[in-house]
């Protein structure tokens, strides 16, 4: 469709996942988290699922460093797994293995054979962490009265001075990649897959939500 292909890749990724993004934001667990109604055990269950996912994302990213397109986006300043591991320790959680975690990690592993699809996973998590993640970090600090960044390393990017220009730069690097139309379409499809895999994590957490809700916001 000409209307789609005339968009830049970053515009395609954003508009192609807008409905999925709305669904993610309104999943009961994520909505409760953003409203400050999830307790420490709930937040640990969230981070515990994200840790194996990020370990896989970052392991595959390191291996795909031979791919010129991945090299354009991959940035050590974004790496989150050690921050998540530190936070998990703070919240008293452990890495969690679950069907949704395995499905997500397995899909990321498969992108070793398809670097363009890897980029979709990279975009979905890291641009999310630099966007809604920043909101969640502030909510946690307020609700749990955290000082000195205890427990919220996930949302701090010490090597990134300002988030907004960084995100703009990331989108420009995406748009400068020499991808065919087919590859661009594959990237958009894979962003939808990535959102669905995140939704799988949130569905598991939503099923456990009654045990994680606090009464005060
Ligand atoms: C309560 C949950 C969430 C909130 C409040 C939220 C909020 C936001 C906001 C306000 C933006 C726009 C930032 C900007 O334009 O600079 C954004 C962008 C984004 N979010 Fe979320 N988000 C949430 C959940 C998620 C989840 C679960 C994911 C994926 C796993 C995600 C992925 C993204 C991505 C990839 C972008 C960048 C879109 C683009 O500019 O291309 N978000 N989010």
What does the model show?
This protein is mainly α and 217 residues long. It has one domain: Heme oxygenase-like (Heme Oxygenase, Chain A, Up-down Bundle), CATH 1.20.910. The protein is 70% helix and 0% strand. It is built from 13 helices and no strands. The protein has helices at 2-5, 9-16, 18-26, 28-34, 40-63, 68-73, 81-90, 99-110, 115-129, 132-143, 163-176, 181-207, 209-212. The longest helix has 27 residues, at 181-207. It is globular, with a radius of gyration of 17 Å. The protein starts with a helix and ends in a 5-residue tail after the last helix. The model has no long low-confidence stretch (mean pLDDT 96). The protein binds protoporphyrin IX containing FE. Residues 10, 13-14, 21, 24-25, 30, 34, 123-125, 127-128, 131-132, 135, 167, 195, 198 line the site of protoporphyrin IX containing FE (HEM). InterPro entries: Haem_Oase, Haem_Oase-like, Haem_Oase-like_multi-hlx. Residues 1-13 have a biased composition (Polar residues). Heme b binds at residues 14, 21, 123, 171.
